[in-house]
Design goal:
2 copies of one chain form a homodimer. Chain A is 75% helix and 1% strand. By secondary structure, the first copy, chain A, is mainly α. The first copy, chain A, has one domain (7-329): Farnesyl Diphosphate Synthase (Orthogonal Bundle).
């Protein structure tokens, strides 16, 4: 087998885009510096250096290159996207009162909620400055709309999460806000900055949107059936935090009266007892909702791959294609 | 006496700009609506309808009109500025753990910290969409830079507030972030959208900057010598919250060794006892720092008035002139 089939697609992307990602990382370090407030680089370095997969900036770089871009604004946009992502994580941790992120203590635990809120705001402002530097109003429009979708989705999640009336349509809105809006903006702005034809820009949006949705559905599924050593999360965290995600929403939709009372007590009222998580998992098994959720994730991954057909073929397109498969392959 | 000398300058501005302010308020209500997340208009209405003086959006409208603007983008920019201000207040209340704002319970008390963080983010995103609609990259650049200054100032305040090494230079940076950056952006974008010559745009920036600094110095002074019925705050809140502001910074700069220990214990270590506030006030009196702070506020108000000379004369300029005087007249 050659290297292209053995290594993970995001690792192959990282190899191909290594030079540009280095420029992105330099720009990130440069712009998170603050002459007057050393707390800012402290907090962001903690998170940025912890090193997620840097998937979002790589999507922007890959999209721009795929559309033949040879300028350097895609570096700024990749850093923009990573800043927005990091800012969102900082605010999420305050909202969720999380203690761990990427296997390390969260900033709100190491410093305080104040630092997380304000440094998050600072990163948003920095990302805003970076995108203005590209001089593209279309890019600004896309990122402004993505920001609004993200924020609205977060608020919606807060109020909808413990409400048993939350159906799959509302779940999809939450998921777009939580994950897909930034994925689709990341790919779309890559095409826009490259001056790609509208059909390709739309395809990049569709790819990012579907990839993001598949990614989040898989995340929510792994919460119930993942290996905690691999995911860095404990099985059933969402249940304990009373977050309605797809596997439970599907089970609630088919619940008997007695089962409904169980969901009301544990999710709506949050009165959980020993053994409740096992009972919840039993109900998901009874209705096959984990399998049904996996089917949904596969459908979105298929849509992501289908969208790529409108884009120029080549290595980068192949990697994006494989990435969509890999996102759901995490389930195996 | 005619009406122009008896009523307050911001009330005269409100009268002259009434039609446009109504359009701004309509736009604000329209854009804070959220189809999916009713929590958003609930939280923002609580704050927006509480009705501050709407000084910032009036500054934008006045600046645009003063420079002869007759389009409608200044309405969008005025709403933008108010959204940014409101978002900042929501995040501030989380950071300060405040219980009251504008004489009403804060959103974080009525709802929770989550709502304040996320709805604040939503308002930032909405403000961003509004400014993109003006299609002016210069406006976007100004507001991106103001956002960064605001966020950096907030972080700086958090770390500098309880640090006795904080001097007047650092204080000024905090004040610019906290207040003056949005004032100067508010006036400057009014001139930019009107296509005013660079000299006038600079004058509008200088006016907003100096007005904002005067405004904040007065606020900090009123904390120590204000009438709590008029200010809605208790005397000495900043002392109790261990916030180093100008009257104390000036007293610390001249402190004897014993007095320095007092400031270290009360501000740096936060170990406050009964009678400490009175002792602190005594030290401010001893060195005349309240008077010196008032002199500083007057100097900035003078600078604001001087900047106006570069702008077309007429009623609006007179009102802005009087506004600078009024801001410090709150002290009497």
């Amino acid at each position: 087998m050659d290297q292209s089939t053995t290594s993970k697609p995001h690792e192959r992307l990282a190899t191909v885009l290594a030079g540009e990602m280095e420029a992105v990382n330099r720009l990130i370090r440069d712009r998170m510096a603050s002459e007057h407030a050393p707390r800012i680089p402290e907090v962001t370095a903690h998170l940025v250096e912890a090193g997620g997969k840097r998937l979002r900036p790589m999507l922007t770089l890959a999209a721009a290159r795929l559309c033949g871009y040879d300028g350097d604004h895609h570096i700024r946009l990749a850093a923009t996207v990573e800043f927005i992502h990091t800012a969102t994580l900082l605010h999420d941790d305050v909202v969720d009162e999380s203690a761990q992120r990427r296997g390390r203590p969260t900033a709100n635990l190491l410093w305080d909620n104040k630092s997380s809120v304000l440094v998050g705001d600072y990163l948003f402002a920095r990302s805003f400055q970076l995108m203005v530097e590209t001089g593209s109003l279309r890019v600004l429009d896309i990122l402004a709309n993505a920001s609004a979708t993200i924020a609205e989705g977060e608020v919606l999640q807060m109020t909808a999460a413990t409400d048993l009336r939350t159906d799959e349509e509302v779940y999809l809105k939450v998921v777009r806000g939580k994950t897909a809006a930034l994925f689709s903006a990341a790919t779309q702005v890559g095409g826009v900055i490259a001056g790609a034809p509208e059909r390709q820009v739309q395809a990049l949006y569709d790819y990012g949107d579907a990839l993001g949705i598949a990614f989040q559905i898989v995340d929510d599924l792994l919460d119930y059936q993942g290996d905690s050593r691999a995911t860095g999360k404990n099985v059933g965290d969402d249940f304990r935090e009373r977050k309605l995600t797809l596997p439970v929403i599907k089970a609630v939709a088919r619940a008997t009266e007695e089962e409904r009372s169980f969901w009301q007590r544990t999710i709506e009222k949050g009165r959980q007892e020993e053994g409740d998580l096992d009972h919840a998992l039993g109900l998901m098994k009874k209705y096959g909702t984990l399998e049904a959720t996996r089917d949904d994730a596969n459908t979105w991954a298929d849509r992501a791959r289908a969208a790529l057909k409108a884009l120029p073929d080549g290595d980068l397109r192949d990697m994006l294609h494989d990435l969509a498969a890999y996102v759901v392959a995490r389930l195996n």
